[in-house]
């Protein structure tokens, strides 16, 4: 049993919450600090939760609640103007307890995780605590806050895109770019029974010419709609002159509807030059920012949290050499780079940055109306899947280990099993690393 000072998690969003719950599951005490005075329930934000993310949350008692409350969408349709180019129907033959995708707003996910934190011994949460610096000390780190210093063996920085303090602690730059194009998000509550289990993507519809629209179903008859909007778009002006209502009516028709939340944002494509150095690790948006098409932001952040938690636990319990924590950077930055490469290709198709890029997009979409081969060239977002480390297809750290018999020589390990080749497999079948 590790009985030293708690690991400090900076940031109490879903990635930080996940890191805290997983560390506590490994019998490591945790202190979560967040600069906000309290939980803020704001809009849908990250809505698409992938099966492996649900599986990770299930290990801390939250996955089933999130899955049951969410919307399991089964069909993804893609349109060009008035033409449906193709659709993908998700069949599930994996035998998993969870569906491939569940849509549920980030605010509700945070509430569920808050409930699990409140019921979990060993986790303390301090709201209204701003981290001003992090310095190394023998055997750990000192976390400087506006409410005093905290001694800790490790820090997991989940402070979001503005987590400059934790990036600075490891000397990491936040390389990449910000796209100039703007996007409008609205959460609309409306009765649309023909679309309640469908994701729809529209290229160049008549009601948003030259741009695109993405529509996702959410719980409680709510739909998340993303419009690409022109430079200089003014949301308040659009509200005032009735254009926002007309924009929504072009999608929902005469149905009564309620606008639950709206915001305008730009996409970023950035990755920290290091995700871990010494005793400070970065996870989630503090480490990488990517366009949301494909749902790679929160899902990859949860995978970061899992990787960080088991490594820190193994080091603190003495089950492995402390150098096991050093490998976090190589593994999770490789995953971040792949996710950024995927989302950058998507953005290059959705919002080309050159005349030749626009010409290619127009040509592909025009041909796709009648040519099935051209449809394979359309990129509206490749859906997230856990990063597979290494070249061997099985087993790979980070992937769900397939069902198979375990040799009699396997022995029980804390939180999982060590198989004959010392592969650590959690009781739920998730590969979490190699044992000592």
Nutshell version of this structure?
By secondary structure, the protein is α+β, with helices and mostly antiparallel strands. 29% of the residues lie in helices and 29% in strands.
Strands, total number: 23
Order of adjacent strands in the largest pleated sheet: 5-4-13-14-15-12-16-19
Instruction: Give the number of helices.
Output: 11
CATH topology of the largest domain: FAD/NAD(P)-binding domain
Provide the CATH architecture of the largest domain: 3-Layer(bba) Sandwich
If you average the pLDDT, what whole number results?
87
Distance between the termini: 17 Å
Query: Would you state the CATH class of the largest domain?
Result: Alpha Beta
Explain this structure.
- The chain has 436 residues and is of the alpha+beta class.
- The chain folds into three domains: 7-71 and 98-176 and 269-343, FAD/NAD(P)-binding domain (3-Layer(bba) Sandwich); 178-267, D-Amino Acid Oxidase, Chain A, domain 2, CATH 3.30.9.10; 392-436, no CATH class.
- It contains eleven helices and 23 strands.
- The strands form five sheets. It has an eight-stranded mixed sheet with strand order 5-4-13-14-15-12-16-19.
- The radius of gyration is 22 Å and the shape is globular.
- Residues 391-395 and 402-422 have low confidence and may be disordered.
Topology of helices and strands:
Elements (H helix, E strand, L loop, with lengths): L6 E4 L3 H12 L4 E4 L14 E3 H8 L4 H7 L5 E6 L2 E7 L11 E3 L2 H13 L4 E4 L4 E7 L2 E6 L2 E5 L2 E3 L6 H6 L4 E17 L7 E6 L8 E7 L3 E8 L5 H6 L2 H10 L4 E16 L3 E2 L2 E3 L5 E2 L7 H21 L9 H24 L4 H14 L3 H4 L35 E3 L2 E3 L4 E3 L5 E4 L2
Parallel strand pairs: 1-2, 1-11, 2-7, 4-13, 11-18
Antiparallel strand pairs: 3-6, 4-5, 8-9, 9-10, 12-15, 12-16, 13-14, 14-15, 16-19, 17-18, 20-21, 21-22, 22-23
Helix pairs in contact: 1-4, 1-8, 2-3, 8-9
């Amino acid at each position: 049993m590790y009985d030293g000072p708690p690991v400090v998690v900076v940031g109490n969003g879903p990635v930080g919450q996940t890191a805290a719950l997983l560390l506590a599951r490994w019998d490591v005490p945790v202190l979560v600090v967040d600069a906000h005075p309290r939980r803020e329930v704001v809009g849908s934000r990250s809505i698409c939760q992938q099966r492996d993310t649900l599986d990770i949350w299930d290990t801390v008692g939250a996955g089933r609640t999130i899955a049951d409350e969410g919307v399991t969408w089964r069909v993804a349709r893609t349109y060009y103007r008035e033409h449906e180019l193709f659709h993908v129907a998700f069949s599930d033959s994996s035998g998993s307890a969870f569906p491939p995708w569940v849509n549920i707003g980030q605010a509700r996910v945070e509430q569920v995780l808050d409930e699990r934190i409140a019921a979990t011994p060993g986790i303390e949460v301090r709201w209204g605590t701003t981290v001003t610096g992090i310095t190394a000390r023998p055997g750990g780190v000192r976390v400087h806050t506006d409410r005093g210093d905290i001694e800790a063996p490790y820090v997991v920085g989940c402070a979001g895109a503005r987590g400059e303090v934790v990036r600075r602690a490891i000397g990491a730059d936040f390389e990449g770019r910000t796209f100039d194009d703007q996007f409008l998000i609205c959460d609309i509550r409306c009765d649309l029974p023909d679309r309640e289990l469908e994701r729809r993507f529209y290229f160049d519809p008549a009601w948003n010419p030259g741009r695109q629209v993405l529509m996702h179903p959410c719980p409680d008859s709510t739909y998340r709609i993303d419009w690409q909007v022109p430079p200089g778009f003014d949301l308040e002006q659009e509200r005032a002159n009735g254009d926002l209502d007309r924009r929504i009516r072009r999608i929902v028709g005469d149905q009564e509807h309620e606008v639950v939340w709206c915001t305008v944002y730009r996409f970023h494509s950035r990755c920290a030059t290091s995700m871990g150095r010494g005793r400070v690790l970065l996870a989630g948006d503090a480490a990488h920012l990517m366009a949301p098409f494909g749902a790679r932001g929160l899902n990859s952040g949860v995978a970061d949290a899992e990787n960080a938690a088991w490594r820190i636990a193994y080091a603190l319990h003495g089950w492995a050499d402390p150098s096991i924590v050093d490998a976090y950077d190589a593994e999770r930055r490789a995953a971040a780079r792949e996710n950024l490469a995927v989302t950058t290709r998507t953005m290059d198709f959705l919002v080309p940055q050159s005349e030749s890029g626009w010409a290619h997009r127009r040509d592909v979409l025009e041909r796709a109306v009648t040519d099935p081969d051209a449809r394979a060239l359309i990129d509206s977002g490749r859906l997230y899947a856990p990063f597979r480390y290494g070249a061997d297809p099985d087993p790979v750290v980070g992937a769900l280990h397939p069902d198979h018999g375990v040799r009699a020589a396997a022995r029980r390990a804390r939180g999982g099993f060590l198989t004959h080749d010392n592969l650590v497999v959690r009781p739920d079948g998730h590969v979490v690393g190699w044992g000592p």
